[in-house]
Amino acid sequence: MELKDGKFYLTGGVDPLEIAEQYGLPVYIYDSAIIKKQIDRFNNAFSVKKMKLNYACKALTNINILKLMKKWGMGLDAVSIQEVRLGLHAGFKPKEILYTPNCVSLEELSLAVELGVKINIDNLSILEQFGDHYPNYPLCIRLNPHVMAGGNSKISTGHIDSKFGISIHQLPHVHRIIETYGLNIEGLHMHTGSEILDTEVYLRVADILLNTAKDFKDLQFIDFGSGFKVSYKNDGIETDMEDLGEQLSTKFNEFCKDYGRSLTLIFEPGKFLVSESGYFLTKVNVVKQTTSNVFAGVDSGLNHLIRPMFYNAYHNITNISKAEGRKRIYTVVGYICETDTFGVNRKMTEISEGDVLCFHNAGAYCYMMSSNYNSRYRPAEVLVHEGKHHLIRERETMDDILKGQISVL
């Protein structure tokens, strides 16, 4: 969002306050130009013969976002059979989708087989069951490198106590299952967590994965997952993609030379691609001063944006109704009937009731984690694309709250 002549604008000169007026509040906005910029930045950071980005769609699955990803050459990383079906609906071919679930039944994996997508298995029990039922179906195996990485314990997935992946110490058992059932292992995968800042940690995991890959002779690809940190506080603290790309490209190219042929280097960025593209607009219902705080209470809550309460996540907040002027300190809270805090002691231009506040970096895991808690409606979603704004999801109504309920009294 750019400040120009005392007003905030989205890409192409789109006025966010115009969107608020036309579609109502609260509302999620996604700027497609920022998504494309992030895709290009990622691709340009690496120098390998074959590379593929699979969009980790759990971050944001609106069908229009998926169609843009398809248009821009992405594959898809799906973690549920429903995400697989959304991807197929958006136009992805089955082999462009890598299905990476955890703790699902063989029945759900069987559905994925019927749909023809690539499958990634992360536990020995299911690997053995799958081999018994579908010995000829090509597979990817998700390994756990036992490296602690990530910005929060709830989003770290590669450590020894994680439920994700098959332990690298269980590789002898993996190979026994492969040999017993004659499995076709076409890929190896690791994902250590989200919000990884230290390039050296990522490269250490890469060494583990590449050393492990030497013992799998029929690989087509190696998937390094994602977890790259974005700058939530506009302080430039983020994963240095250019440095990582240079170092990891060197490692991967050397591996392929020793392996005897070029494999495809795969990543599955989600947050990195869509987080900065998203803005969440809310209206200030009340300004309430107490003995210790000045609260700005908005027409939303943890039902729409749970990350601050769930992860202690930071989202920059801007008063876009008053781009310039006197600054004051506010604690921004929501309307849900329990502790519901978006940000404490935030400095912004003086807030009046009726002003529009913008939560930045709201493209990833924001709408997707929303709920109907307190029987509130989920907000609308709007896409800004090529200088125009489009409604891409209607605001819910009471009919949506009642849908599926069955009255028996």
TrEMBL record:
Specifically catalyzes the decarboxylation of meso-diaminopimelate (meso-DAP) to L-lysine. Its cofactor is pyridoxal 5'-phosphate. Homodimer. GO terms for biological process: lysine biosynthetic process via diaminopimelate. Pathway: Amino-acid biosynthesis; L-lysine biosynthesis via DAP pathway; L-lysine from DL-2,6-diaminopimelate: step 1/1. Pyridoxal 5'-phosphate binds at G227, Y365. PANTHER family: DIAMINOPIMELATE DECARBOXYLASE, GROUP IV DECARBOXYLASE. One of its GO terms (molecular function) is diaminopimelate decarboxylase activity. Keywords: Amino-acid biosynthesis, Decarboxylase, Lyase, Lysine biosynthesis, Pyridoxal phosphate. It comes from Portibacter lacus. Belongs to the Orn/Lys/Arg decarboxylase class-II family. LysA subfamily. It is an enzyme of class 4 (lyase). Residues 35-275 form the Orn/DAP/Arg decarboxylase 2 N-terminal domain. Transmembrane segments: none annotated. This is Diaminopimelate decarboxylase. The gene is lysA. Residues 29-363 form the Orn/DAP/Arg decarboxylase 2 C-terminal domain. Substrate binds at R307, Y311, E338, Y365. Gene3D superfamilies: Alanine racemase, Lyase, Ornithine Decarboxylase, Chain A, domain 1. The keyword Nucleotide-binding does not apply. The active site is at C337. It comes from the Bacteria. Its EC number is 4.1.1.20. It catalyses: meso-2,6-diaminopimelate + H(+) = L-lysine + CO2. The modification N6-(pyridoxal phosphate)lysine is found at K58.
